[in-house]
Design brief:
This protein is an alpha+beta fold and 223 residues long. It is 53% helix and 13% strand. Helix 4 packs antiparallel against helix 5 and helix 6 runs antiparallel to helix 7.
Amino acid sequence: MSISIRVDFVSDVVCPWCAIGLSSLEEAIRRVQGEVEVEVNFRPFELNENMPDEGENAVQHIIEKYGSSTEEIARNQASLRARGEAVGFHFDLEKRTHFYNTFDAHRLLYWAEIKGQQRQLKHALLKAYFTDGRNVSDPETLVEIAKAVGLPETEASQVVNSDQFGEHVRELEMFYRGQGINGVPTVIFNNKLLLTGSQSPDTYERALRNIAMEQAAIAKFAP
C-alpha cells in the first residue's frame, strides 16, 4: 500500500532558517524514499513586507529591529554557516548585504508551481540570495533565475512585470497568518501536524514516519 503525505512548507526566500529547514526536510524525505511518497508545496510568508524597493542594509536592519550587537550578529552568522554546512547548504553572508521585499519572488513561485517547477525555483532563489548575494526583489534578476531553472523567460518576465498572481499570494499569506503562523519556517503535514522553526532531519523523519504509520493503521481497519 502506497502512503502519501502532503507537506506545506511556509517560508520566505530571505529567511536563513528556511534554507536550513528545507535542506533538513529534504534529507528526511530521502530517508523515507520508497516507503512514503511526499508532496512538498511552498507557501508564501514575507518577513519584510514593508521593505522599500532598494532594501535595507542587513546588519543595520538586524541592529535596529532586534537590538543585536555586531558581535552577536557575527556569532549568529557563524552558527548559521555551521548549521547550513551540516545539511548541505552553503551560506556566504558576506555577499548578502541587504534584506529585500520578496512579494514578487512569491508571485513567481506561485506561477512556477503551476508550471511544475516550484521546487527548482525555490532552491535557486535561496542559493541566489544566501550564496550568491543577489537581489531577489529585482525583476531582471528574478527572470534570470527563473530562466536558469528551465522556466520560459518570456512568461517569467510577464509575471514579474505585472501584478499577476498577487491576489492569490496575498490570500495565502492571510490564510496562514490567520492560522496563527507568525514565524518561519513552518512545516504542515497533511493539514494537521505543524512544526515551527528549523528542525533536524531526524525530527522531520519521525514526523513523516509517525504520520505514515497512522495512515497505514487507519487504512488497515477501514471497511
